[in-house]
Amino acid sequence: MASIDTQQFNSRIRLRHIQCFVAVAQEQHLRKAAERLHLSQPAVSKTLAELEELMGTRLMERGRFGARLTRDGQSFLAHALSVLEALEGARRAMLDEATGTLEVVRVGALPTVAPDLLPLALAEFRHVWPEAKVDIQIAANAPLLDKLRSGEVDFVLGRMADPEAMVGLSFELLYVEPLVAVAAAGHPLFQEADAGLHRILEFPLIVSTRGTVPRHNTESFLRSRGLDLPSNCLETLSVSVARLVAIRSDSVWFTPMGAVREDLAQGLLRRLPLVTGGTEEPVGLLHRSEAQPGRCAASLMKILRETAELRRGSGGAWTLV
């Protein structure tokens, strides 16, 4: 990156430069960004060119297939999002002050993590902030991180991603959890003295969808024992669908422990005696590195930390690295 004339940069940089850059980075297309900003495409292109001149470097590669961030662009995006987040936080704070209302807390959560940690934390949060609104958005890890970068959620209860996907984001470990294989309490496997993995695979399997960490861990676990995932699996991101199928049929469900902890405690499901060491995955809080969460979001994050600490202290299956 070329050296930047700080005085010139400070005197010429405008909010429209940052808004335009963020819109193109998120849409990955000049035309779509122009439509979002209610501007013409040439106006967007000119604004980006002005910003790159001020920065002294190319922030995006534009072509017939869209716009892609350069390495400098990825670095600048994290700071640009922080600027917009700070302005939005100030706007919300002033609105809250004027109307006496509280902010909306927007949380992204993995489907296998949400049922384990969020219910307890939300009950405590409701006691502390009875007037606050909470919006829970459930998705796989990659879409959740996209939502976090774009400011659609305040923080994510999820997993750390590859380094390139973590630019501008921070991860705070809460616990690690193993992959487990579970079945209905009355499943025939529990009547057999020595039901090994080959025998388990004779029954229908329920697994997470492709591209998710639980799915990767399931396939890796089987491959390490010379086996492949059967082709007739039920693949789903929905914990509610998976648990009901497991409870009401002879299917075996491979899932992170957090998704079934309550059902195991109630005796609706039982854990099959498989040694799944090496499948443990860290779960934690992800947030934008340079952004400060609002009062209510910060409070819910604190309660989630405390809830995780209580679970670890109660002798559950959570462990720390």
Automatic annotation (TrEMBL):
Q: Which GO terms describe its cellular component?
A: cytosol
What keywords is this UniProt entry annotated with?
DNA-binding, Transcription, Transcription regulation
Q: Which InterPro entries match?
A: HTH-type_LysR_regulators (IPR050950), LysR_HTH_N (IPR000847), LysR_subst-bd (IPR005119), TF_PcaQ (IPR012787), WH-like_DNA-bd_sf (IPR036388), WH_DNA-bd_sf (IPR036390)
SUPFAM superfamilies associated with the record: Periplasmic binding protein-like II (SSF53850), Winged helix' DNA-binding domain (SSF46785)
Name a single GO biological process.
3,4-dihydroxybenzoate catabolic process
**Record GO terms (molecular function):** DNA binding; DNA-binding transcription factor activity
Q: Where is the HTH lysR-type domain?
A: 13-70
PANTHER family linked to this entry: HTH-TYPE TRANSCRIPTIONAL REGULATOR YBHD, NITROGEN ASSIMILATION TRANSCRIPTIONAL ACTIVATOR-RELATED
**Which family does the record claim for this protein?**
Belongs to the LysR transcriptional regulatory family.
Write down what this protein is called: Pca operon transcription factor PcaQ
State the species of origin: Pusillimonas noertemannii
